[in-house]
Amino acid sequence: MSSICIIIPCYNEAHRLPVDVFLSYVHQISTVHFCFVDDGSTDLTGFLLETMLRQYTDRIDTQRLAKNEGKARAVQSGMLLNMSKPFDYLGFFDADLATPLTAIHDLTEALDTNPSLDMVMGSRIKHLGTDIQRDPYRHYAGRIIATVISNILKLPVYDS
User: Fold this and answer.
1) Residue 24 contacts by C-beta under 8 Å, 6 or more apart in sequence?
2) Cα(108)–Cα(88) distance, rounded to whole angstroms?
3) DSSP 137
4) Cα dist. 32→13, 53, 98, 153 in Å?
5) pTM of this prediction?
6) pLDDT digits over 51-65, tens only?
7) Which of 10, 51, 75, 124 has the greatest number of C-beta atoms within 10 Å?
8) Is 132 helix (H, G, I), strand (E, B) or coil?
9) What is the 3 state secondary structure string of 9-64?
10) What is the mean pLDDT of each run of 10 residues along the chain (160 residues)?
């Protein structure tokens, strides 16, 4: 089985972080390791992450950035920290688990069964009958940024 490290960028997530879901997953799935990167949170996020770390020191890592530098920097920091470790795959998920942890299996299975792939990614797209709550300003700003990134990288992806 593949060993996997999932980076979780966190900024003021104390009231949204589903701690029980992460701990349950770590307890059940022995091949997945989590690296929570606290992006300079000013709430109790750091305390929650340390509590999780104490329960699974062999499967959960934490890293704290001195100040808020943004999600991309938090993900980059976690990736750099774990690149030299013996993981088969590195990835990242949002702290609120908008994508459920069960998707880890689907994503790694796609990589395992298609050796020509270098990466896989998922994206939340609002379909009829789904209930994805989005702030309109963030949604439109995100769409513009994602479109620019997609064009720069010449990758036809909806959400980079």
Assistant:
1) none
2) 10
3) H
4) 21, 14, 18, 29
5) 0.79
6) 999 999 999 999 999
7) 10
8) coil
9) EECCCCCCCCHHHHHHHHHHCCCEEEEEEEECCCCCHHHHHHHHHHHCCCCEEEEE
10) 92 95 96 97 97 95 96 94 94 90 90 84 57 66 70 63
